[in-house]
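We modelled the chain as a single entity of 141 amino acids. Its sequence is:
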Amino acid sequence: MPGPAPSEPTVFSRLIAGELPCAKVYEDERTFAFMDAGQVNPGHVLVALKRPAETLLDLSEDEAAALFRTVHKVARAVEAAFAPEGITVLQTNRPAGWQTVPHIHVHVVPRYRGDGAELVWPRRSPPMDELKALASRIRVE
């Protein structure tokens, strides 16, 4: 079941409602895609669910599917428009997970070697028995 909306309107809710200007890329019944005002590289697009849910965990399976269907369309359009060397698709949840706007969204970022964008985290390499123990804790339904 979908989770609650953020208690206050977010900047994304205001963009989607037309209360603030944006450079819209795509819109359908459930999703809204627009240029990120803080471009990592030219063509950096944000794809948001129109319903103001905070995180991926607050979406129904159908909403998640709709969001990522639009991410796929936008990534293909970015590829056609900018011919990048790569594309980073990034979705974050809650401040500890690097989320800065409490409205579900996905970054579609055209990438180039040496563009200065980095995603760094410590890499741990536990033994296989530990990986299997961790996997056994996760129940996907």
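As a brief sanity check on the tokenised model: Strands lie at 24-27, 31-35, 45-49, 86-90, 105-111. The helical segments are 11-16, 61-82, 128-136.
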